[in-house]
UniProtKB/TrEMBL annotation, chains A, B:
Residues 24-266 form the Xylose isomerase-like TIM barrel domain. This is Sugar phosphate isomerase/epimerase family protein. Keywords: Isomerase. The keyword Isomerase applies. The keyword DNA-binding does not apply.
Length: 277, 277
């Protein structure tokens, strides 16, 4: 199966029951060439130690998740968010990945103004993007499903993400294409083509859509093949748009997290080959 | 307050703890001039009896909810859905409302093809729309929030709804504009203008967006003013598009349903005036 996993990357959150050394071991055993890492477990392990661990194992760090949360209006909160995002850029550079995923943030308490919140993201990127470039890191705005628009991410579609990203050079700011968030959107294929035409597909992630959604709707993403999304169709869209990079599987799922992490990694790799390979 | 309630209509589901006679009484007491009714409680009471009850009370039936669920592929299921929708048209006509709200239906089991499901809706409407016209009823396609795309409604945006509706005369098929489902969509104001330009805003409904969403995400709609949606802005959009009809408040909320229905109706009317009046 190894040959078919050339493009595959496992996002650390999918198998968060594994420690970082366990994840690295499991990737070697299953033949997984890439990992998308998260800041919190990397910080807990130590950024430099984590970087050495994955580098010594020959793993490619395909993304770091995540920066963002740039919608605050209070000056001190905004300054803190910018400082934290600069640290995220530093961590991405230390880990050797060229892509920092950004989840934009929701509406501030009491606000009903999505448009203004989206503008504050663009304002913040004007400060962050040059800093990221200096460190060899590209920012990848991730539109999240519209069900997260109020409390997590005011950027809900690829079109909205590109409207922001295109204010910057493509090597500074692009987008994250994640099937879970955009599969319902009949405009998304055209927006993928738009993103590809200017080299802005900075990462491509997979998760399947299953129902019923759990309370809070955060941790109900489906294993590849279990849900409503035609994975091969979306892979075709990004490849026709010129994307040749890694394909990350990123699942948040309370049930999957109760399982043996190594077994789950092997299953996920197998599902990737079956449904998106 | 009565004068400010001229445009207000209460959707029966908002106060489903009230029986139909209790609802009619409460509307009189609060000064509510319109009701949006649901098929199941109307059928349980008797369609003709319900029609007489609301007519005698001088209430306007602003909509009947709902027809639709037109995405089946199996011929017998499709025929059953069409027959049920003809009955819904008959019931709407008997109740004296000119608007039947349509919730399109989700993906059939095992299907991943949203586009084909949307086409089957258009095919079904080609049969239903002339029947509805003969009975003086307009069909109002309701885009539901994208979080319902797989299991309830493959039509997720006003643009998608209009792409279907515009294949038919406006007096046969239009759309339902419901703030809960479209508030996140930066394209929605332009689509409301598009709908208004051809007389296709057949009903306008309000519900607020609150989080966290409950398991299954169906019954978590917020009381007007409790959430993230700028109600007055959306009222302005539909009115600038030429809409002068009733404004229905339709909430599905397990917590609100535990309260006294008459008190809830009065509160809802008051919130309407405060936030959307």
């Amino acid at each position: 199966m190894t040959a078919d996993l050339t493009r595959f990357s496992i996002n650390q959150m999918t198998v968060k029951q594994l420690s970082l050394p366990e994840l690295v071991d499991a990737c070697r055993d299953v033949g997984v060439p890439g990992v998308g890492l998260w800041r919190e477990p990397v910080q807990a392990y130590g950024v430099e130690a984590a970087a050495k661990l994955v580098r010594d194992a020959g793993l490619t760090v395909t993304t770091l998740c995540r920066g963002g949360f740039l919608t605050a209006t209070a000056p001190d909160e905004r300054a803190a968010a910018l400082a934290d995002n600069r640290r995220a850029v530093d961590e991405a550079a230390a880990l050797g990945t060229d892509t920092l995923v950004l989840v934009s943030g929701g509406l501030p308490p009491g606000s009903r103004d999505l448009r203004a919140a989206r503008e504050r993201i663009a304002d913040a990127l004007a400060e962050l993007a040059p800093y990221a470039e200096e460190h060899g890191v590209r920012l990848a705005i991730e539109p999240l499903h519209p069900m997260f628009a109020s409390d997590r991410c005011v950027v809900s579609t690829l079109a909205q993400a590109l409207d922001i990203a295109e204010r910057f050079p493509a090597h500074q700011v692009g987008v994250t294409v994640d099937t879970y968030h955009i599969w319902w959107d009949d405009r998304a294929p055209a927006q993928i083509a738009r993103a590809g035409a200017t080299g802005r597909i900075h990462t491509f992630q997979l998760a399947d859509w299953i129902t019923p959604l759990p309370e809070g709707v955060l941790n109900g993403r489906g294993q590849i093949g279990d849900g409503a999304i035609d994975m091969r169709a979306w892979r075709t869209y990004v490849e026709e748009a010129g994307y040749t990079g890694p394909i990350e599987v990123e699942l948040f799922n309370d049930t999957l997290w109760t399982r043996d992490g190594r077994e789950l990694l092997a299953e996920t790799a197998s599902r990737f080959v079956e449904h998106a390979g």
